[in-house]
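For the sake of clarity, the format in which proteins appear in this thesis is described at this point. Each number in the token line that follows is a code from a learned vocabulary of backbone shapes. One such record is shown here in full, so that the layout can be seen directly:
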Amino acid sequence: MPVCDHQLSLQIDSQLSNTTLVAMAVRGVCAMTTLSPVEINRLELCLVEIVNNAIEHAYGNEPGHPVEVCIGLDKTTMNISVSDWGASIPGNVIKDQEPEEINPDHPESWLCSGRGLHIVNKLMDTVDYDTTEEGKNIFTMSKALRH
């Protein structure tokens, strides 16, 4: 993560109920920016989506595992990283693919799964994913701040 003027780091247990803490934290940091309310809502959505993915997919909804969130802020950019030590995202999934069409006549097409990464890729300015040799998965994303 780049060097930032302000940085907030927190670690939560891998329980979906803890995403509220992450959402409130990012809103607090966003209050220090020029982001509009719509942009703040979108940024919160993206962060919660990635934290949910770590909990649901990396850890299989099993509590007791760490999820680290770092939010960095400088004059021009907000940088966010979400880290876990669970199952990594397969390469074919991380690439931005168009989600399947939703067909109102076919309820099986209504499933939300698989749309989150596409949304994050569309709403954030940069997105990256890496797994270290030690098995740490790091999802990073950034949003430019308007002036």
About this structure: The chain has one domain: 6-144. The mean pLDDT is 87.
